Amino acid sequence: MIRLYKKLGTYAAVAREVKRDAGTVARYVQMKNVPGAFKTAVENSIRTMQGA
Q: Where do the structural domains in the chain lie, given as residue ranges?
């Protein structure tokens, strides 16, 4: 979902693509209620995948 958000630019566009509510997409992309260490690990993983 994060990659789709970066590609499409809006939560609504991603929501239509994955057939979910825009609020659900927003919470996932923003990683609300996620511990800081986990959020950092996911962000680092995304950066590593983009560099590959």
A: 2-51
